[in-house]
Amino acid sequence: MPGQPPTELDKRVMYWENKGREVPTRDLIKTPEQIEGIREAGKLNTAVLDEVARNIREGMSTLEIDEIVYNYTTQHGGTPAPLNYEGFPKSVCTSINEVVCHGIPKAEDVLIEGDIINVDCTTILNGYYADASRMFIIGKTTPEKEQLVRVAKECLEIGINAAKPFCFVGDIGNAIQKHADKYHYGIVRDLCGHGVGNAFHEEPDVTHFGRKGTGMLLVPGMVFTIEPMVNMGTWKVFTDEDDPYGWEVISWDEKPSAQWEHTLLMTEDGVEILTY
What we know:
single chain, 276 residues, alpha+beta, 4-stranded antiparallel sheet, 3-stranded antiparallel sheet, 5 helices, globular
């Protein structure tokens, strides 16, 4: 606050700022009260995805998944953040096979054996936000799709391990990209992780590719998502022209895509996952 001497955290941030590096503003460093609120939102968000996991099956429509998310969230005192967000018409994103992200639940989108689907859920509880997604394999799928789903999860885990206090956003993306490159997979560049907690999307943008030592400095108290979108082919994507809402993103070559996501709190020792 104005007039107060700088804390040790302030001094460390100022050191990098004086070197011309991008550093977080004070409002991006959450208070203990805010962190506890985000943690509670994370618990509900996890419970919602657990409820989806208990029910998802072949023959289910993605609209039924949306109904599960809406009903469970609201019955437990929360609000689905995607509902009516910038014109998004449903409570959750359901992205099947070549749909990279922002898939809109529909009655006609019925899951069949071999599908892979990302269910991306963001929950508001008492004004705080938490965001996570999981992949589900419907029945038995191909070895190629199984590998893609596994590697996408590994990319998230590697990104989490690369996120250290006073590292940079680019360190996360660089580690993720190196792992995906081993499999000749494309890491989507048009979309990224983001700060979260007091709002749906905050700074910084957390890219999943790039060079170490670039991007914003990450310091204790920041809350953000890591959510690599991993394509079996090219990293390029397009928006479905047949989507009247302009939301659904599809891989350029229409090969399958997979994504996992967690909301993370940076601490003095590394990150705490708030959406387990």
